[in-house]
Amino acid sequence: MKFFVDTADIEAIAELNAYGMVDGVTTNPSIILKSGRDIMEVTKEICDLVDGPVSAEVVALKADDMIAEGRKLAEIAPNITVKLPLTWDGLQACKVLSGEGKMVNVTLCFSANQALLAAKAGATFISPFIGRLDDINLDGMELIEDIRTVYDNYGFETQILAASIRSVNHVLDAARIGADVMTAPPEVIKKMAAHPLTDQGLAQFMKDWAKTGQKIL
Ligand code: G3P
């Protein structure tokens, strides 16, 4: 499973990158707002730091304007993935930009039918939002499962990018189903390392080691 980090926080990306945990980065207008940075500048910095795909989202609503914004964002670096909303206009922009050889991430996906359309329009990634479905008492993981089935039935190469991941259990469930990629905030990725039995076991080892009176270095 590829790990994308859902943030524009340069320090957090650099830290996780040093652990080999960053296969790519995803951003959106809310994340750019949170960063307090200029979209072009911060996205360029992220692209310089990370080898994998970096999603930068258009904000236009009409296909022609989305295409123009997508082309501009794609000029930032070769690893830019143009992020487009799953609307009828977004699908048209997806078809055009993917036809130009650009990576495209179709976002705000909430149904398997939407995901089917994105695959047919040539999306590189489809981003189903798990947490936001859970928020309204629907099953986000069921959507990942349905998309996996539909894509596998027909051999679509569009990668399932599980997004709106809020917990470590979301990561595991998406991995069990076979999502190709997941994108999560840095703190969720770091939490995956935590286990109380690891802490307890380590504390006991340290106690016993101190009793031996030995040193390794
Ligand atoms: O990757 C999508 C993500 O940024 C949305 O997450 O937690 O705002 O639903 P959330």
Report what the structure shows.
The protein is of the alpha/beta class. It has one domain (2-212): TIM Barrel. 52% of the residues lie in helices and 17% in strands. The protein has helices spanning 10-17, 29-35, 39-49, 63-74, 88-99, 112-120, 130-135, 140-154, 168-177, 186-191, 196-212; strands spanning 2-6, 24-26, 54-57, 80-85, 103-109, 125-128, 159-162, 181-184. An eight-stranded parallel beta barrel has the order 1-2-3-4-5-6-7-8, surrounded by six helices. Strand 5, helix 6 and strand 6 (125-128) form a beta-alpha-beta unit. The two termini are 37 Å apart. Bound molecules: SN-glycerol-3-phosphate (G3P).
Largest sheet: 8 strands, parallel, barrel
Q: Beta-sheet strand percentage?
A: 15-25%
By CATH, the superfamily comes out as: Aldolase class I
- Widest sheet, order of strands: 1-2-3-4-5-6-7-8
Bound molecules: SN-glycerol-3-phosphate
SSE ordering: EHEHHEHEHEHEHHEHEHH
Query: What would you report as the Rg, rounded to the nearest angstrom?
Result: 20 Å
Main CATH class = Alpha Beta
Number of domains: 1
Integer average pLDDT? 98
Shape: globular
- N-end to C-end Cα span: 37 Å
Given the structure, what is the number of helices?
11
Q: The CATH topology, please?
A: TIM Barrel
Going by CATH, the architecture would be Alpha-Beta Barrel
- The helicity comes to 40-55%
Structural class by sheet pairing and helices: alpha/beta
